[in-house]
Design a protein that fits this description.
Layout (H helix, E strand, L loop, with lengths): L22 E2 L11 H13 L11 H11 L6 E4 L2 H11 L3 E5 L3 H10 L3 E5 L8 H7 L4 E5 L11 H14 L2 E5 L3 H4 L13 E6 L12 E4 L2 H10 L7 H12 L2 H21 L6 E2 L6 E5 L3 H10 L2 E2 L1 E2 L9 E5 L3 H13 L4
Parallel strand pairs: 1-11, 3-4, 3-5, 5-6, 6-7
Antiparallel strand pairs: 2-8, 7-8, 9-10, 10-13, 12-13
The protein binds 4'-deoxy-4'-aminopyridoxal-5'-phosphate.
GO molecular function, one term: histidinol-phosphate transaminase activity
Subunit structure: Homodimer.
EC number: 2.6.1.9
Amino acid sequence: MRAFKAHLRGLSPYPYAKVEAPIKLDQNESPFDLPEALKEEALRRMARLPWNRYPEIHAEGLRRRLAALLDWEEEGVVLAPGSNLLILALSLAAEEVLDLSPSFPHYAHAAKAAGTPYRAVPLGEGFALDLEALLAAFTGGVLFFPNPHAPTGALFPEEALKALAERAREVGGLLVVDEAYREFSGTDFSPLGRDNPHVAFLRTFSKAFSLGGIRAGYLLASPEVAQVVREVLPPFVLPAHTGAILEVVLENPGYAQEVAAYVRQERERVYGRLRQHPLWHPYPSHTNFLLVRTPDAAQAHAHLLKGGILVRRQDRYPGLKGCIRVTVGLREEMEAFLRAAFEVAYA
Ligand code: PMP
């Protein structure tokens, strides 16, 4: 086949294989579906839309609403079906992509798919950020920096972000702070981008807002950066139906706060219990998941699956030997997980 660019040869798809299990703790989803009343209201609004017409080209109505809500410049907001698509758009536009290793795998994947030069700076012992190495490596292009960090769950200090933001300005690059898990850490780094067009923020409705299946996320950036992303994305990219759902959830943010409050409490409880495990080591987390080092990830994963519990193996990533990642689910799901975790036997 000679239809496709040579750089795509050997690119493996996003590493996810669907496995069925009654207790699903593998994708960092919200354990709660959208409240029924909000679903019904969203469906009513969908029914009133003209389905034959294209939606607004840049979801202007929603963009205005988000901008007002977040006190951000309207022209700097870009909505898309999932922040993954915004990562791809930024990677297509970037001169170079830089990230951490380990980090959310879609950054590397998107850069490689886009044919954009890609480099990663390894985290140190105990997933410590090597700020000096990262500052030295950041010589331009786009740096994807999730904070809280995935897949470790760590929260890097604001001072590090400040230094990276200044470095971005100095070298003319773009620091993209991916705040996918911000509701679980209670952080908001967006003030760092208010007077610095070299910093942008990614947010998602897939986690605390419980809309993983709907696919929606947004970018907060300077109008210049947002313009580039809009040029790369296809027009009318946000479906009208998604817009109707987002309108409803933005009018009713209370449930997302409840989801986040539950997850934080349950995460700390499970973390505390796992700290008593003789062989497993949980890492402190500021997200809706826990990274856990076990003597053997394959064995841990298989043992849990036998008990009907699906977690994610992370041992293919550099520095994550033996690690599994467990999403914070419902209380009874976490109890089942803990029971199975303490039963695991090693030969
Ligand atoms: N960024 C990070 C750090 C994530 O972990 C995820 C999802 N797992 C995403 C972005 C993607 O979010 P979305 O569902 O909006 O595409």
